[in-house]
Amino acid sequence: MKELKEQSLRAAFIKIFAQGANLLLRVGSLMVLARLLDPRDFGLVGMATAITGGFNVFKDAGLAMVTIQRATITNEEVSTLFWINMLVGFLLGVLSLAIAPFLVTFYHEPALFWVTASLATGFIFTGAGVQHSALLQRDMRFGTLSVVETLAQLGSTALGIGMALEGYGYWSLVGMTVMNPAVFTACLWFTSAWVPGKPQRGAGVGSMLRFGGTAVLNGLVQYTCGNLEKVLLGRFWGAEALGIYGRASQLIALPSENLNSATGGVLFSALSRLQHDPARLKNYFLKSYTLLLSLTLPSTLACAVFADDIVLLVLGPKWIDAAVILQLLIPAIAALALIYPMYWLLYSIGKAERSLKMALVIAPLVIMGYVLGLPYGPNGVAFGYSIVMTLWLIPCLAWCMHGTIISLRDLLPAIGRPFVSAMVAVAVTYMAQSLYGPAVAPLPRLILGGAILTLVYLWILIWVMGQKELYLDLLRGFKEDFLTKVTG
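Given the sequence above, the corresponding structure tokens read:
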């Protein structure tokens, strides 16, 4: 258990650091591209990716999870899964090309044909790297994986900005989207040093495909819930409205997405190792859940105070309409932050079917929220989404925990401490900004407000809520791991 704890802490630290670098790259590229391109450019590409992005759910056929979750797996099995992933990637590319004429007719945008056709090539690159990435995660080589992710982000960002400076418009966004998986897969092949063998008939992948199929179907339903509003906005409100909504949703989701990306793989790998030790699994999950929420909730709730300044500084004045949308999406993103780790728990203990059933229940509710808000434009859609996710939160958490060693009562303290701390910090920051805000420029106002919020939040969380020991334990773990590496 101690070895797993040290591995997990080291992996989480590396992933968080790397995701921090990726976050800076993503925000930096967004700041530059938002000033070089128009909302319509983002909206046009968003029309295509709202559909082709759904195909990404199928990109690994759920087989990356299989490779990570299995207690034992042979080289023949992984090689067979690799060739299945390659076939899936090729078929997704063909499917993307086939739907291009449909998108042109649906959105009344002729440019979407070649945009969609170009995006199709990305699926082939992605399919070639699925099992290499899964093997690195299985071995908990998150340092290597983080470097690869950063290089891919850096390469695609450089290409996108370079194309935008040369006047390529929305094609710069297409170039970024295709370049990322190309660089990512090339680096994976170089660093993992694994070469797939020939596919083997009867390699025992039948049960793996069933597990992967459940994961894929679940991911497809979740993707539909989270992206159908973009299709509707693009169809009924146009590329500009979609571009503004898309950037607002991207901005508010960036912190939680990066943190979940940093910790999700580590959490899943560690929980999979503990699936036959319920007591340790419960202890590990609750501590990890508390830590994750303590990082995601304040950054999400802070957008209630900083929305205008964030939009002005990151996107620029022509995107100011995105600020209201960003604020309206806060409840939805906060609810997702609470729900997201539950899926890793369910998958790690072999309850993927429950996750699928939950997704099938929430899907029609979320779609109803979108449809009811659609007549009121992007603001109405954001509001409808947040209302549904807020109402769904408690039933979802209770359903996730039903029949497991963890109860809803166990979760409430883990949720309550960071949530109350963040809410109080946001309230204090809001009152402070009402005093000095109008007299201060956006950048120093954001820096000062962020400092106030952070200090108040940490003081309440650590001292008032009594979380000091939890974080001291984490620091001791990092220190022990560092000393072990130095001395030995």
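Residues 2-487 form one domain. Try to locate this feature in the token string yourself.
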